[in-house]
Amino acid sequence: MYGEEEMTAYEYFKWTPAKLELAKQSFAVVMIFLGIGLTYWQMKRKISTIHLNHLLEYLTYIARGNYQLRIPDMQIDELSEIVRSVNSLVDSTVHAMEEERRIEKTKDELIANVGHDLRTPLTSIIGYLGLIENKRYHSEEQLLEYTHIAYKKAMSMQVMVNDLFDYAASRLVSYEVTPEEVHLDFFFEQLAAEFELEAAEKNIEIEINVMPKNLIVHFDPEKMARVFNNLLSNALKYGHGATKIKMNANLIDDDQIIMDVVNNGELLKLEELEKVFQRSYRADTSRNSAIPGTGLGLGIARNIVELHNGIIYAMIENNEMIFRIEMSRL
C-alpha cells in the first residue's frame, strides 16, 4: 500500500512535456505582467518627474513677484495636494499684501486729514497771537477777545491731538480693557449729566431707558465711557433738528445686551451708515466742515467695543438715527 501511494505522488509531481510547456507559458505571462508593471511604474515616475519640474518652474515664477499666477491641477494625487496648498498660500499672501496696502493708504489719508484739521486752528492762533504781539488791538476788550479766540482754537487742537493718540492706542495689541461690575442706570446718568448743559442750550432732552432696572453689566467703565461720550457728542453735533437723545439698554437674554444712542434729528444716508466708522470719515463734509473734529471718534468707539468682543453699527429705524452696541453682559 505504501509503495503505491509513493508512486502516485511521484507520478503527480513528475515534469511531463505538457506540464513543462504549461509552466513555461505561465512564467511568460508572469514576466509579461511584471514587464508591464515595471514599464507603467517607470512611465508614471517619469511623468511625476516632469510634473514636479513644472511645479518648480511655477513656484520660481511666483516667487519673483508674479502673484497673479496660480498653479493648475496636476491630476496626480501626491502633487494635487501640494498644488492646492501652494495656491492657498499664494492667495493668503496676496490678501495680506492688499490689506497692508489698504492700511498704508488709509494711514496716509489719516495723516493728511489730521494735518489739514490741525493747520486751520493753528493758523488762526498764530494770526490772533500776531495781532496781540504787535499790539494791533484797540481796547482791553478786544485784547481779551483775541486771547479767548486763540485759547478756544488751542483747545480744539488739543481735542484733535487727543483723538489721534486715542485712536492709535486703541489699535495697539497691548491696549487692554479691564472689565468691572457696572450699574448701567448710574453709568448712563453720569454720562447724561456731562452733556446736560450742552443739550439744554440746543433744546434737546436726554432720556435714559434701561430694562430691566438696576441692570448690572461687566465692561471697562473708563473706555466704554469714551465710546458713549463719542456717540453723545456726535448726536449733539450732527443730529441737526433733534429734540431728544435717548440712551437705551435692553437685556436680550441672560448674557447678551443691546445698548443704543438714539436721536430724532437729521438722518444719515444709507450709504454713509458703514462709512461713519472709517478713519477720518465725516458724513456730508460740505455741511459739517465748520464743525471741529478729526472724524476719529467713531473709529475709536468701534475699536473699544471690539476689544470687548462686541459689535457697533449704525441704523435707521422709525425715522430715528440709532448707534447700536451688542455685547456680552458678563
Walk me through the structure:
Helix 4 runs parallel beside helix 8 and helix 6 packs antiparallel against helix 8. 60% of the residues lie in helices and 14% in strands. The strands form two sheets. It has a five-stranded mixed sheet with strand order 2-4-5-7-6. A hairpin with a 4-residue loop joins strand 4 and strand 5. The chain is α+β, with helices and mostly antiparallel strands. The radius of gyration is 38 Å and the shape is elongated.
Please name the defining characteristics of this protein:
330 residues, alpha+beta, Helix Hairpins, Heat Shock Protein 90, 3 domains, 5-stranded mixed sheet, two-stranded antiparallel sheet, 14% strand, elongated, disordered N terminus
Explain briefly what this protein structure is.
The protein has 330 residues and is of the alpha+beta class. The chain has eight helices and seven strands, in the order ααααβαββαββααββ. It has three domains: 12-64; 114-170, Helix Hairpins; 180-328, Histidine kinase-like ATPase, C-terminal domain (Heat Shock Protein 90, 2-Layer Sandwich).
Helices, strands, pairings?
Elements: H1 2-13, H2 17-63, H3 77-133, H4 140-170, E1 180-183, H5 184-201, E2 205-211, E3 216-219, H6 221-238, E4 244-251, E5 256-263, H7 285-288, H8 297-307, E6 311-317, E7 320-328
Parallel strand pairs: 2-4
Antiparallel strand pairs: 1-3, 4-5, 5-7, 6-7
